[in-house]
Structures are given as structure tokens and as C-alpha cells.
Amino acid sequence: MDVTPTNDADLLEKVINLAKRRGFIFQSADIYGGFRSTYDYGPLGVNMLRNVKHQWWKTMVQMRHDVVGLDAAILSPPAVWAASGHLETFTDPLVDCLKCHGRFREDKIDGVCPSCGSTQFTESRAFNLMFKTQAGPVEGDGATAYLRPETAQGMFTNFNNVLTTSRKKPPFGIAQVGKSFRNEITPQNFVFRTREFEQMELEFFVPPTEADEWYRYWIEQRFNWYLDLGIRPEYLQLHEHAKEDLSHYSRGTTDVEYRYPWGWDELEGIANRGDYDLTQHSNASGVKLEYYDQAANERYTPYVIEPAAGATRAMMAFLLDAYHEDEVEGEVRSVLRLDWRLAPYQVAVLPLSKKPELEGVSEQVLALLQPHFSCDYDITQSIGRRYRRQDEVGTPFCITVDFDSLEDHAVTVRDRDTTLQTRVPIASLLADLRARTNQA
Ligand code: GAP
Fold first, then answer.
1. Is the CB of 201 under 6 A from ligand 1?
2. Would residue 89 count as lying in a domain?
3. 284 and 371 share a domain?
4. 266 CB near ligand 1 (under 6 Å)
5. Could you state, in chain order, the average pLDDT of each consecutive group of 10 residues for the chain (440 residues)?
6. pLDDT at residue 298, rounded to an integer
7. Same domain, 301 and 353
């Protein structure tokens, strides 16, 4: 019986708590009182975040012949951000409360100070979200550098490099996963909006006449990616931006939205950026960023369709969506019903007792599975407690090695979702787990 909290505030609190308690996500620098809005990913979190990024890369790069990868620098010179438009327009409206001097994003507070309730504010001013720093020991304009606020610009500035070295032609894409930084005025909701985060972005270059078709194509692909990885369909929706809300570069943007505990909000944005970026960088650098179509003997600037997702934000949505409480043998258990591809550990090997004979067989089972699955090995506490611990962090399969295993060379496989237990010969354990995870 499902007894998952229906109260959204409870759900958010429970998931944040679980993430901290079980080593998914820690407050950064917490021995110094924490550093606001920065987080560290612990032993389970780093596994899960890597799985999210791996699944994205697999779908977007590995399984396609028309997309190649890139890993560009995080530090970049002002020229890039002047051309991209970020220096001028990548701003949020900032106001100060005249009573308590708190600083807020004007568009997020409905005219009332969230700290003291006052309605008196300074005039709003444009606050640039980019982190500015200095490269090298010399101060001054020549040394200014920015931490990238999106990975996208690396794909545009490398357009010619990738085109000539990969021999691709439009329609083709460049994909990148990596850190981005924004000096958000109001970071909030755990890792939903932070100042340092990870993005997974594709810039897909197409002939201008095909832009609309590819825009629709990528909206559908990206929506289905979340469904395929287990997000409940009723928690996902598409939201097309009104013309007046579009970013400075966009001719059309549709968000994939998730129903978070605080309501529908962005998970990923898919934009038709037109020829804005390649044209801007061509003009600013003096290097033409175009495609020469030999067959038609014509040069053109491709349009860009951009599915831009957040890896850390997606991980949070997957955690929220997977969190359930149900009743097993009269006790409430919390369980993360994560898709096996995302689970921090896919298999846990559990010797029934600490007897050396059992540990010996367990270590053999572990060695058999480790090349194929991410495995935990747990010998502490009762077997019931260990099952609960694995359920709580989303491990889909527990393998118990007991005294019978020494005689029958078989183990018990327990399924996280059904709690059903099956006896499986060790000789066919790998094949059994592959079948359970739909792998040939
Ligand atoms: N290149 C286009 C671009 O960066 P965006 O909508 O600003 O578009 C894309 O960002 C995605 O990056 C968002 O949908 C979100 O998942 C993630 N993201 C953006 N800002 C974030 C933040 N401050 N914290 C966590 N994730 C963020």
C-alpha cells in the first residue's frame, strides 16, 4: 500500500533530509557553517549524478551519428560574452527592501518583502548574473575573465574547429556536459537553483528552412527522455513561452516542466536560437562561422536548435519523483523507485552473517557483478535492516548469500519494488540480472 506523503512541503523536506542523511548531497563547507547555495555530492550522489549525465550522453551522443561531443573551458574572455549578448542582457531585476535591507529579485516577490513584509523598495536595477574574475597576477581590463553562465558558447566559438575536424554537415549537433555559474540573486529550493550547477546542452545546427521541424523534433525527444527514465507522465508537461518572455537570442522556446512540490517549474528549455549566435560571433571575431554546401554551391549560417538541461536539477526531479513510502509487513518503509540506470547502486551484495565462509562466497559474487553493475557490499546489521537501507537509496536488487549458498551455489535475489525473493544459481546470476534490467 502506497502511503507516500501527499503534502508537498513534507515531501520536499523528506527528500532533502534523505539526500543529506544518506550521502547524496551535503551542504558545502558545512564544518564552517556552510556556504550558501553551494552543495557537495557525496558517495551516493556522485554515482547518481554521473548516471544522469551518462544517460544523457548515451542518448544524445553515443546512440546518434549526427552529434559529436565537446568539453570547453569554463574561463572565458569578455569578448565571448560581449558578442553573445550576456554582458548587456544577462541580468535580473534587483531591488533592496528599504526596511530590512534584504535584496530580492523583483519579479519573484509580488511587491512584498519575504523577510519583513514591507512594501517599500529601491528602484529596480539590472544585476548581471555572471561571475567576474581575473586571470593571471595583473589587475585591469586585460585580465578580466568570466566563469561561463552556460556551456553553449563553447559550441559556437568552436563551430569551425568541430566542422572541419569531424567532417559533419548540417543537420548535426555538438553536445557538452559541464559546470556553469550564475550569481543568482535568490538561489532556492535545494539544488533546483544554485550558483554553481551542471548543464547538459546540445547545439543542433540545421539549414534555416528545417529549423521549425527540428525544434518540434527535439521537444518531443527531450520530453520522452524523462519519461523513459521513469518520471511519471502526470508530473511532466510542456510550456511554450509567450513571445514577450523570450530570451534575447530566442525565436521560440518550450520548457519541459516538472511538477515540483512548489508547483510546475522548469526542468529543461528547448530553444530555436536562429542564426543569432553564429552571426554575432562572426561579426565580433571577424571569422566567418558558416557552412558551405558544395552540392548547392551556397554558403549559409545554420540555425541552432538548443535543448538545454540541468544535470543537478534533473537529479533533483528524479529523486523527488522516485520517493515513495509504502507498507511492507506492517511497517512503513521509504523507497526510491529509481530506474536501475540512475540508481547509485544497482546491486547490493549482502552476506547473511559475518562468517568467513559466507564472506568468501560473497566476495566472489561481488567480483562477478562489479564489472557490469555498480555494487554495494554491506555486512552490518540484520538482513531486514539492510534491505530497508538499500530500499531507501533506491538499490533495485539485493543479493543475499546464506548458509545454503555454500551447498547449493545459489543466492537469493530480492526485488526492491515487489520485495519478491527468488533463488538463483550463482552460475546464472549475471544472466538473471541482465534479463531483469532488459539487457540482452
Ligand atoms: N544555453 C541556454 C541556457 O543556459 P537556461 O534555461 O538558462 O538556458 C538551461 O538553462 C537549464 O540549466 C535550465 O533548464 C536548468 O535545468 C539549468 N539551470 C539554469 N540555471 C540554473 C541554476 N541556477 N541552478 C541549477 N540549474 C540551472
1. yes
2. no
3. no
4. yes
5. 78 96 96 93 98 98 98 97 95 93 89 92 93 88 91 98 96 98 92 97 98 98 98 98 89 97 97 97 98 95 98 98 92 95 98 94 97 96 95 98 97 97 98 92
6. 95
7. no
> How confident is the model at residue 249, as a pLDDT?
86
Q: 99, 104, 94: which is closest to 117 by C-alpha?
A: 99
271 CA → ligand 1 middle, Å: 12
Which ligand 1 atom sits nearest the alpha carbon of residue 199? 12
The answer to whether residues 171 and 269 belong to one domain is yes
Report which of 90, 283, 282, 62 is spatially closest to residue 183, judged by C-alpha positions: 90
For residue 171, say if its preceding peptide bond is cis, omega within 30 degrees of 0: yes
CB 312 less than 6 A from any atom of ligand 1 = yes
> What is the rounded CA–CA span in Å between residue 356 and residue 358?
5
Closest atom of ligand 1 to 268 CA is 14
pLDDT of residue 440: 63
If asked whether residues 225 and 291 sit together in one domain, one would say yes
Q: Which of 397, 389, 393 is nearest to 418 (CA)?
A: 397
Ligand 1 pocket check for 268: Cβ under 6 Å: yes
Q: Classify residue 440 by burial, with Cβ atoms within 10 Å: 0-12, 13-18, 19+.
A: exposed
* 112 within some domain: no
Does the C-beta of 302 come closer than 6 Å to ligand 1?
Answer: no
| pLDDT score at 187 | 86
Please say whether the beta carbons of 49 and 343 come within 8 A: no
Establish whether residue 152 lines the binding site of ligand 1, counting it when its CB lies within 6 angstroms of any ligand atom: yes
Residues 315 and 382 placed together within one structural domain of the fold: no
